[in-house]
Amino acid sequence: MTTIDTASHSTSEASTASASHALSTVGAWITTSDHKRLGRMLIGCGLIALLGIGAVGGLLGLERIDVNTTTLGSGSIDQMFSIFRVGLAFFAVLPVMLGLGVAVVPLQLGARALAFPRLAAAGFWAWFFGMALVVLSILANGGPGGGTSKYVALYISAFAVMLGGLTMIAISLATTVLTTRAPGMNMRRVPTFAWSVLVSSLGLVIVLPVVIGASIYLYVSYRYNRIPFGGNEGILDWTGFSMTQPQTFLYVLPAVGFFAELIPVTARKRMPMRGFVLAGLGLVGVAAITGATQLPHLLPWRGSKLYLGHFSTKLGDLISYGLFNIVPVLGVVIVVLLGPLAFAAKKGQRVAPKITAPFIFGFFGVTMLLVGMVASILDGVIDLGLQGTVYEEGTYTYVCYGAILAALGAVTYWGPKLWGRRLADKKVMPLALLGVLAVVLSSLPYLVAGFADQPAGAITFSYGGPHALWNTLTTIGHFLMVLTVLAYVGLALQGFRKGDLAGDDPWDAHTLEWATSSPPPANNFVELHTVMSPQPLLDLKPSPDAPKTETA
Amino acid sequence: MLALPPAPAPAPRRQLFVGTALACSAGTMLIGGMLAIWLRFRKVAMAGTTHLWVPKGISIPEVASNIMLFSFIGICIFAQWAVYAAKRDDKSHVGLALLLTGLLGLAVINAQAAVYAQMNLPIRPKDGTSAYGVMFYAITGTFLVFMIIGVVFSFVTAFRYLGGRTSEREIVTSHAIYWYFAAAAFTMLWFVVYVTK
């Protein structure tokens, strides 16, 4: 009896203890300022948001297959286009990129924590609730083109709050890279990923407040006098520049930094001409100036033939167009072109590259976003007549989905450090190929349809080309992207909980995050490390070319 | 696990100072972006048929706005005095300087309220088309938020310093940086909104 009583009591106690444990775990995550948890929360929420945004993209493609009928209702089309555009940049891509930075950068720098961790936590929650309110306002017929006044106003204010949160995270990240590096790690020794996060964060600190300022005007104007800023129809006119190229290059820059980080690890040697890689990543930061000017920089060429009249004006246009549209792309091109140098063997040196799933994701992701970047250069040439067509949507999707693909590689790469377990390469690699197919199908048809003058942001239109084909392919592409991310999240949930133990340095990597245990302890490092080169861990490893010594 | 040689404890790298500077950069871009939109609307209005930007019958109280500008000179001097005194561990002067900075900040807020009261500018214009009202309240209201943050910053810094954390000089320096930013932002705003009108 006593035993039974005790057992019963124990069961009850155990279930109470289990519930209490679950509650305290949830509480710990909600109130956390630990960068590893914050980073994972950003990445997780961003990927979940992407599932919804991808589905919206698919539905919009579906609507455009038959140009004569609408199933969603013409009243909600503007809002659907808005949520796709806003969501892809600010619900998914930017949070995932910043989340990677928050989770990994302090570890890469040998720091114990983020600078201003509570600011970053406040930023996360501001972003999260801002995003939730943006979605709510759109569902309640608010947002750009919405018909319910109070929810349009809610959309504008929530949008500003969301961007405010992302700005806070960017300030925290930039301060971390500038102030909390390990002893010996000067700015030239900062890992390329951390460097790209710094450039991106500084760009965001410059650009996002400009969008917030425009949103403040929009909000006050919408509440009291709707005419000057165009009411609900004017919202995207005034904030839309933050969701176009080359502005988006700033958002996806950490994806390029990740790939640059992975090249020497895959080649298993030091990165040659590393300074040029850092310079290339820095050049992408020029995109911030475009955001600050709040204008697209176009190239009017007056006629399709080579027209050289008004040469000085033309030269001015060319310089401004080149500076804002071509220079950021040039930065990524430099990084990509330097990649093969890492795989080139010097005399007497062996190069034995080790191709892994993160590299495959990174390679395809950066290739995709580079295609989008290069394609976006043409968008600014007025004579091509691509302005106002779906061409811009195609480049936008290329850049954003490409970055997400690279981000999945980054999660595969740093996941073992954050969770202590690794994903099986064989299971993950096919998803990279599926992802490439998804990106190409969701974006490329619109580059073609743009030349055929399919209008942007419209579901009823007419042109001579096979519009049903292009829009069907795009729809399939968006749903494939959703499938890719869904499958990846499923694999990650399983693999990072029950997969093989990763060990401290599963990729034979070069940077400091791999010098601590997986997952790292509360303060990241048991002891501080002195950094002697950009590859501090490689300094301690025996060179593959060194003669093998007999061990007893 | 590979073991690297232990390093000495890292020297402080002025985290608060750098963070404040970045936040000030963000604030500068916010005000700068808003001023750019202001100038664009003003240009369009001046090129219109009425050539009017400020609505008829509205006059800008220049005394109060000029006093606000002069107050910022005092604010910057007092904020820098706090830094100077903190370097010399002169606790009483640090406290005095910080409190004077905060008080002058409150005076600027008061002057802004006086500007609103004297202008009596309707946010909804009678003709319904002028953007001046909404833009004036939006930009000056945003700056008012920066002022409130600055005053809170001054009092928090004074509270911490007078409470015994005299070794934390960085917060006093960061506080000064914040007020330099506020002064620069207001100077831009003063010139565009109150002088060129």
User: Remind me, CATH topology of chain A?
Assistant: Cytochrome C Oxidase, Chain A
Shape of chain A: globular
- Specify the biggest β-sheet of chain B: none
Mean pLDDT score of chain B, rounded? 89
Quickly give the structural class of chain B: mainly alpha
Architecture of chain A, CATH level 2?
Answer: Up-down Bundle
Shape of chain B: elongated
Chains forming the largest contact:
A-B, 51 and 43 residues
Q: Element order, helices and strands of chain A?
A: HHHHHHHHHHHHHEHHE
Give the strand order of the largest sheet of chain A, numbering strands 1, 2, ... along the chain. Answer: 1-2
How does the SSE layout of this entry go?
The complex is a heterodimer of chains A (552) and B (197).
Chain A: H1 2-30, H2 35-63, H3 77-109, H4 117-139, H5 149-179, H6 192-224, H7 235-239, H8 247-267, H9 274-284, H10 287-293, H11 311-343, H12 357-379, H13 391-419, E1 421-422, H14 425-451, H15 467-498, E2 500-501
Antiparallel strand pairs in A: 1-2
Chain B: H1 15-47, H2 62-87, H3 91-119, H4 132-162, H5 169-195
Explain the overall architecture:
- Chain A is an all-alpha fold and about 550 residues long.
- Chain A has one domain (about 35-300, about 310-535): Cytochrome c oxidase-like, subunit I domain (Cytochrome C Oxidase, Chain A, Up-down Bundle), CATH 1.20.210.
- Chain A is built from 15 helices and two strands.
- Chain A has helices at about 1-30, 35-65, 75-110, 115-140, 150-180, 190-225, 235-240, 245-265, 275-285, 285-295, 310-345, 355-380, 390-420, 425-450, 465-500; strands at about 420, 500.
- Chain A has a two-stranded antiparallel sheet with strand order 1-2.
- In chain A, about 55% of the residues are buried.
- By secondary structure, chain B is mainly α.
- Chain B is built from five helices and no strands.
- The longest helix of chain B is centred in the N-terminal third of the chain and has 33 residues, at about 15-45.
- Chain B starts with 14 loop residues before the first helix and ends with a helix.
- The model of chain B has no long low-confidence stretch (mean pLDDT about 90).
